[in-house]
Specification:
about 475 residues; alpha+beta; Helix Hairpins; Heat Shock Protein 90; 3 domains; five-stranded mixed beta sheet; 10 helices; 12 strands; about 15% strand
Length: about 475
């Protein structure tokens, strides 16, 4: 039972970024330190050996100069004739304490010392000094051999490496003692610095965990720096801002939709109550009542269709159904053939330069979007509405809906595309729309990788345009089963 909390603690420790950063920093420092220590020890050993070799070479030069000057071996010299025919003379240098060995040519006699030293006899090769290393005083691995030609012989000295080995051993012991302590120090510093660096992340995590659907207006603290932590804080605040805006939009949509739906429901309820009372009194015109009810039901159905279209546009369920090949010219003629107002002329104009007016998308959604634009234009127009189809910039096809009405003021153009926003002349229920037409058209255009634009019309009123990419295959996500009005 006691192993469960321990396992969870170990799992949290392994998952800790702070621990991983600490282990990574300590491991990297340990590897770097011991590689550097190995290079240092090697360099130190080579340096000490080179110093010893240089010192020996200096001493041999002095001995060679002394032999040349005196033309005789030192008085206290031991002469040994080896079995291989090489004669060896050895003495102790009183100034440095080194043991000097002089290799003489074969056939040397004590009386020939001056001739040998002055180089008159057959010379001895310096490589003959190497034979001495196997003869006696020290092994190759524990000795530094230095040779120098002097006359017909070779001077050699052999220095033990015991002092060098001791220096390397002491340095190695010191590094082994200091290394783990330095690794532990680096690990502690990395742990502390990682904790300080990750503290804002912990605070942001705690703050975000406290933010719910009813407190999306709150934000995490911005450290005010320019590093990655500050960028993360700003990105999270931007995300919270988008979530807050989306949540507010959803709340407003529900509120506005509820308000708009209550009106036709209230009208139908009133009509039914009046009809019921008149029926009890024996007088009632059910044909008039049914006409009012059917009109309000059409209004409700149209509003529900628009809301469903907007909801499906927000879902963006890519690939939910295959795209249709839609001829924009046919859409324009189809919209122009409907009757919106008896006193308003609907004209369809196709620019002669339009050669490819087909787009890939949801035909039903595009029909409904264009129907909204033409319906809005017909309500605002004095006598004429034009549906103009042109080729736009960047392989786009443009659907312009122009009217000769009062137009849309510039300061209101960004507002009228919002949901349930209507112009002053369109606020009465009898005027028609519920303030969803331009919002639906804008959403349809956006889902089809296009855009909706509002400008001044050549007819004097407003121009509302839908720009769509030509021939770009895609899967539209707007409500494919929504029937147009």
């Amino acid at each position: 039972m006691a192993l469960g909390p321990l396992r969870r603690a170990l799992h949290r420790a392994r998952a800790s970024v702070r621990l991983r950063v600490t282990l990574l920093a300590a491991g990297a420092f340990a590897v770097t330190f011991f590689i550097a220590a190995a290079i240092l020890l090697r360099s130190l050993e080579n340096g000490l050996v080179d110093d010893l070799r240089e010192s020996n070479s200096t001493a041999l030069e002095a001995e060679a100069a002394s032999l040349q000057a005196t033309a005789a071996l030192p008085p206290d010299v031991d002469v040994v004739r080896r079995t291989d025919g090489i004669t060896v003379a050895q003495w102790l240098d009183p100034s440095s304490g080194r043991r000097i060995t002089y290799l003489l040519p074969s056939g040397y006699a004590p009386g020939d010392a001056a001739a040998v030293i002055l180089g008159e006899a057959r010379p001895v090769q310096p490589s003959a000094a190497l034979t001495l290393m196997a003869s006696g005083d020290a092994s190759w691995s524990d000795t530094v051999a230095t040779t120098r030609v002097a006359g017909s012989g070779v001077l050699a000295t052999f220095s033990p490496l015991a002092d060098v080995r001791d220096a390397i051993a002491r340095t190695t012991s010191l590094l082994w003692a200091v290394g783990p302590a330095l690794v532990a120090l680096v690990a502690g510093l990395a742990w502390m610095l990682a904790g300080r660096a990750l503290r804002p992340v912990r605070l942001m995590t705690r703050r975000v965990s406290e933010i719910g659907s009813h407190s999306l207006h709150e934000r995490v603290a911005d450290p005010g720096s320019t590093d990655e932590i500050a960028e993360l804080a700003r990105t999270m605040n931007e995300m919270l801002g988008r979530l807050d805006a989306a949540n507010e939009s959803s709340r407003r949509l529900v509120s506005d939709a509820s308000h708009e739906l209550r009106t036709p429901i209230a009208v139908m309820r009133t009509e039914l109550e009046v009809a019921a009372r008149e029926s009890e009194a024996g007088a009632g015109d059910w044909s008039a009542t049914s006409g009012v009810l059917l009109g309000e039901l059409d209004r409700l159905a149209a509003m529900v269709d628009d809301l469903l279209l907007l909801a499906r546009g927000e879902e963006r369920a890519a690939g939910s159904r295959p795209a249709d090949v839609v001829d924009v010219v046919d859409l324009g003629h189809e919209a122009g053939a409907r009757r919106y107002r008896a006193d308003v002329e609907i004209a369809v104009v196709v620019d002669p330069e339009v050669t490819d007016a087909t787009v890939d998308g949801d035909r039903a959604a595009l029909v409904r979007a264009l129907d909204h634009l033409v319906s809005n234009a017909a309500r605002s127009a004095a006598s004429r509405v034009e549906v103009r189809i042109e080729t736009g910039a960047g392989a786009m096809v443009a659907l312009h809906v122009d009217d000769d009405g009062p137009g849309i003021p510039v300061e209101q153009r960004s507002l009228v595309v919002q949901r349930f926003v209507r112009m002053d002349e369109g606020r009465s229920r009898d005027a028609g729309g519920a303030g969803l037409g331009l919002a639906v058209a804008s959403e349809v255009a956006a889902v089809h990788d296009g855009r909706l634009e509002i400008d001044d019309s050549p007819l004097g009123g407003a121009r509302v345009s839908i720009l769509l990419p030509v021939g770009r295959a895609r899967s539209a996500t707007m409500g494919g089963d929504a029937d147009h009005r």
